[in-house]
Every structure is written in C-alpha cells, then in structure tokens.
C-alpha cells in the first residue's frame, strides 16, 4: 500500500456548492453550504451550524430551497458564505421567486430544489436538516430531450473543504453499468 494516513479529514469532498434559501420573519435569507447530500431517494440532507441565521427560518417554517451554484453566479454565491444574516440583512441580495410550496428560489440558479424539512439529526453544533424533496425547478435550456438535467451543459461548482477551492464538474468518463 502506498497510502499515508493523514488523519480524520473530510476527504469525501469536493461536493456541489449550494445556496440554501428560507424565510426568516417573512423575509428571504441565503446561506452558502456544501455539507449536503442525498439520503434515500426522497430526501436530501443539509448540514448547517446551529448559530447560522437561516436555521431559525428553517426550523420555524419548515420550507427551504437548495439552489445549485454554477460559474455564472459563483461570486454572488460566495458572498453568502462570508456574511451572516445575524449581522446584515441579505434579503435583497438576489432576485427571487416564491416556489409553489412557499420557499424562496434564486432566479440566477439554473436548478432550484424546493424542500420541506421533516427531520433534524442534531450532531455536535450542527443542525442536519432532513429535507423532503417537493419540487425541482430547472432552466429549460439545461434539460435534454428526455426532460432530464443535461450535465453536458449544466456544470455545478464543486467546493473542496480542506483547501477552500472551487472547481467545476469535469468530463464524462463512462456509462454506468456498461463499463466492461
Ligand atoms: C464555500 C463555503 C461553504 C460553506 N458550507 C457550509 C456548510 O455546509 N454548513 C455550514 O453550516 N456553513 C457553511 N459555510 C459557512 C456559512 O455559509 C456562513 O457562515 C454564512 O455566513 C452563514 O450565514 P447565516 O448566518 O446568514 O445563515 C460555508 C461557507 C463557504 C464559504
């Protein structure tokens, strides 16, 4: 084996960069995140430090959006990871639209997922919100002829935790289940 043990790291990164949206006191607010993933076919999980401003809105209203970042709005998204609604009002930062289920969706995002929070697996100082998927809104230019998201066109930004760098999705390397 030619591997060195570098200890307890988050080596599952890089992961898609998302901006989470929710209402706090009737106003939208936005928080950059990358601790997120799929749990079951029906739910996603978003892991947010308890002290974050947006958690208050998710806990109160149970509705949130997950807006997937691409290069066209990475600068704006990045800003949502450097300022907190606890100190500054972020409600006017993005143009947004209310989703069919009541969560605020970012107009710049080509993909927005609308969710209902129906569980919270609290761990250390994190709320790990278990989010039921209610709807997925996709810019039609990024759908293929089968009505699926076309990842030859849509290139999510990936965040890499240990070095704090952003990447974009790379090239296709194969077709699943047909590699031999
Ligand atoms: C690239 C990036 C990824 C981040 N990912 C997370 C995350 O997954 N979970 C988290 O709690 N905070 C994460 N943060 C930090 C929050 O986005 C940041 O503290 C934000 O200001 C909190 O906003 P709020 O207090 O208005 O909710 C991330 C920040 C950056 C720059």
CATH superfamily: Electron Transport, Fmn-binding Protein, Chain A
CATH class: Mainly Beta
SSE class: mainly beta
Order of strands across the main sheet? 3-2-6-9-10-5-4
**How far apart, in Å, are the first and last alpha carbons?**
26 Å
Could you say how many structural domains there are in total? 1
Strand content: 35-45%
Taking all residues together, what is the mean pLDDT?
A: 97
The CATH topology annotation reads as: Pnp Oxidase, Chain A
Radius of gyration: 17 Å
Helical segment tally?
Answer: 2
Could you walk me through the main structural features you see in this protein, from its secondary elements to its overall organization?
With 180 residues, this protein is mostly beta strands. It has two helices and twelve strands, in the order βββββαβαββββββ. The protein has a seven-stranded antiparallel sheet with strand order 3-2-6-9-10-5-4. Strands 1-11-12 form a three-stranded antiparallel sheet, with no helix packed on it. It is globular, with a radius of gyration of 17 Å. The two termini are 26 Å apart. The model has no long low-confidence stretch (mean pLDDT 97). The protein binds flavin mononucleotide.
Task: Offer a concise description of the structure.
The chain is built from 2 helices and 12 strands.
Summarize the topology:
Elements: E1 15-16, E2 18-24, E3 27-33, E4 36-39, E5 43-49, H1 53-61, E6 63-68, H2 74-79, E7 96-98, E8 104-106, E9 111-120, E10 126-138, E11 157-160, E12 165-168
Bound molecules: flavin mononucleotide (FMN).
């Amino acid at each position: 084996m030619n591997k060195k043990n570098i200890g307890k790291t988050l080596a599952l990164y890089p992961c898609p960069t998302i901006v989470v949206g929710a209402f706090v006191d009737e106003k939208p607010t936005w928080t950059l995140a990358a601790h997120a993933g799929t749990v079951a076919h029906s739910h996603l999980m978003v892991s947010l430090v308890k002290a974050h401003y947006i958690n208050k809105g998710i806990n109160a209203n149970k509705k949130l959006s997950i807006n997937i970042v691409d290069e066209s709005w990475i600068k704006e998204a990045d800003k949502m990871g450097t300022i907190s609604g606890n100190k500054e009002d972020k409600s006017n930062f993005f143009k947004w639209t209310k989703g069919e289920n009541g969560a605020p969706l970012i107009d710049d995002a080509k993909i927005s997922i609308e969710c209902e929070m129906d569980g919270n697996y609290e761990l250390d100082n994190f709320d790990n919100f278990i989010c039921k998927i209610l709807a997925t809104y996709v810019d039609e230019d990024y759908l293929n002829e089968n009505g699926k998201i076309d990842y030859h066109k849509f290139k999510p930004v990936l965040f890499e935790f240990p070095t704090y760098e952003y990447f974009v999705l790379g090239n296709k390397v194969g077709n699943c289940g047909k590699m031999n």
